[in-house]
Amino acid sequence: MARAAATQPGCGELHITDAEFDRFRDFFYRKTGIRFEDSKRYFVDKRLIQRIEGTGHRGFRDYFAFMRFQASGEEFQELVNLMTVNETYFFREEYQLRCMVSDLLGEVLHYKRAGETVRIWSMPCSTGEEPYSIALYLLEYWDLIDRVDVEIVASDIDTRALERAKQGLFSKRSVSHLPRWILGKYFEPAPGGYHRLCDDLRASVNFRRTNLCDLNETKGMRNFDLIFCRNLLIYFDEASQRLAVQTLYDALNPRGFVLLGHSESMSRITSVFKVRRFRDAVVYQRSA
């Protein structure tokens, strides 16, 4: 049974009907590749109503038309920022970082020309913990970091998260898994119990907005040697997963590697990657 229709602000609480939820869900999926299951209904409704009220619209119908046809796309981006989750922390799934410095980079250098830059893509980068962890690990645990140029590109669909990443300000929870000596070496205390990352490390990462399911936005993402794409595919349905995986494949150099989250796998999506099992992690490699 459908819920009550949206009411006017000031005349009672706004509600999102089943039909409105489905309409928004389909629209958001076409634009981002992210599909909300019915179990996410409360989460989606709450944020939709927040934007309807925040923008002064009469209800879902008025707001949806405004958001959908706004030439700048700013309101849709506001929704994306609200609907995406950015919970992470430094050195998450550290075993993959160990694999990077102990095995993967050695293979990458084997096929690169002398002096050629190693390129790493972190996607989604959330509020910066992911790419900065890569940079920290390279600095502290890779012996060749002083002899090899490394470029780290970090991207996310959430522009608010990207701005926070550039600021380099992190909560106590975000840095809780870092060794104390690394925290003391690269961070300084900031008001409110936060920790501020040093300028050199903040400058070592190039941030940019990217929607992994938008071919226009990803066509420039090429020639990477490593891609960290952790805990993103789980939010996509099968069709979007295939599109995202093909994008990752196209973005890699031959013999390049993709690292997924611990609960993710390529096995049901594609067979174009070779599964490689190293001492610390299972990764996926593009063919030569």
Oligomer class: single chain
Strand arrangement, largest sheet?
6-2-1-7-8-10-9
Helix content: 40-55%
Describe the biggest sheet? 7 strands, mixed
Q: Could you tell me the mean pLDDT?
A: 91
Poorly predicted runs = 1-12
Structural class: alpha/beta
Total count of strands: 10
Q: Order of helices and strands, N to C?
A: HHHHHEHEHEHEEHEHEHEEE
Number of helices, counting only DSSP H or I runs of 4 residues or more = 11
Give the termini distance in whole angstroms. 55 Å
Cα gyration radius (Å):
21 Å
Description:
- This protein has 288 residues and is of the alpha/beta class.
- 41% of the residues lie in helices and 17% in strands.
- It contains eleven helices and ten strands.
- The protein has helices at residues 18-32, 41-54, 60-69, 74-83, 94-111, 129-141, 159-167, 180-186, 199-202, 215-218, 238-251, and strands spanning 118-122, 150-156, 169-170, 187-190, 194-197, 205-209, 224-229, 252-260, 274-277, 282-285.
- A seven-stranded mixed beta sheet has the order 6-2-1-7-8-10-9.
- Helix 2 packs antiparallel against helix 4.
- Residues 1-12 have low confidence and may be disordered.
Task: For the structure shown, list the relevant keywords.
288 residues, alpha/beta, three-stranded antiparallel beta sheet, 10 strands, globular, disordered N terminus
In a nutshell, what does this entry contain?
41% of the residues lie in helices and 17% in strands. The chain is built from eleven helices and ten strands.
Write the topology of this structure.
Blueprint: H1 18-32, H2 41-54, H3 60-69, H4 74-83, H5 94-111, E1 118-122, H6 129-141, E2 150-156, H7 159-167, E3 169-170, H8 180-186, E4 187-190, E5 194-197, H9 199-202, E6 205-209, H10 215-218, E7 224-229, H11 238-251, E8 252-260, E9 274-277, E10 282-285
Parallel strand pairs: 1-2, 1-7, 2-6, 7-8
Antiparallel strand pairs: 3-5, 4-5, 8-10, 9-10
Helix pairs in contact: 2-4
